[in-house]
Amino acid sequence: MMQYQRSALPYNLIANTTETCSSNLTTKHNLTMAYTVLQIDKSDTDFPSLVSKYKALRLSALQQTPRAFSSTYEAESKLPDHEWVSRLRNPSKDTFVVVDSDGEWVAQVTVYGPVSAEAYILPPEAGQPPVAPDEDEEKWQMLSLYVLPSHRGKGVAKLLCREAINHLRSLRHAAPRIRVRTMIAPDNLAACALFGSLGFSDAGLCTLVEGLRSNGEAMPEGILSAEYTTRAGIIMTITQHRF
């Protein structure tokens, strides 16, 4: 069982696990150190330091796994500080991180929403299954998942995504269910396997343009190349009842 508690750190504590607090995780994922899943607190007085850590991990992600993201290291490394602050304080997005026992940020993921059914729907050619009305189902997008290479293969990504989803399930909103969608680069088989192990199922194919819009990200200017309009990205979704 996960242990829940309040944190004195400048984040909102969601869950923590060590090699002794979850025997299933220890056996299956070989967790050998304490990992803590935290939600970034947008009102924290030391917010600039949180932005700095988020930026460092994000740029590492763009360098290490560039094909997994719609943006590039070249573009984001030039962003001014206020752009990073604005991104992390976006009221429609919440970012969750994994911190190891030494206090290092080793993974992060963002959720965007809730998104209206109208905005969530894709063109028929995407093959996405029908979505329920907003009063029955709250819709979210999961994006920007990244784990430092030295911490992969230990169940960190699965722990992080599960706790982010559980947080959404715990929100006291009117809709009795949540639907979480993610869009994956066509060659990112590891991500497909991860989300499949979490209970996500295939839900069609998307273009990069649709991925950017669904993630609440800005569109590039000018004429878009085939890279942006080819329908090849993998859509996966999961629907769960609230706690």
TrEMBL record:
The lineage of its organism: Eukaryota, Fungi, Dikarya, Ascomycota, Pezizomycotina. Signal peptide: none annotated. It comes from Fusarium solani (Filamentous fungus). Pfam families: Acetyltransf_1. Keywords: Transferase. InterPro entries: Acyl_CoA_acyltransferase, GNAT_dom, NAT_camello-type. Residues 52-241 form the N-acetyltransferase domain. GO terms for molecular function: N-acetyltransferase activity. This is GNAT family acetyltransferase.
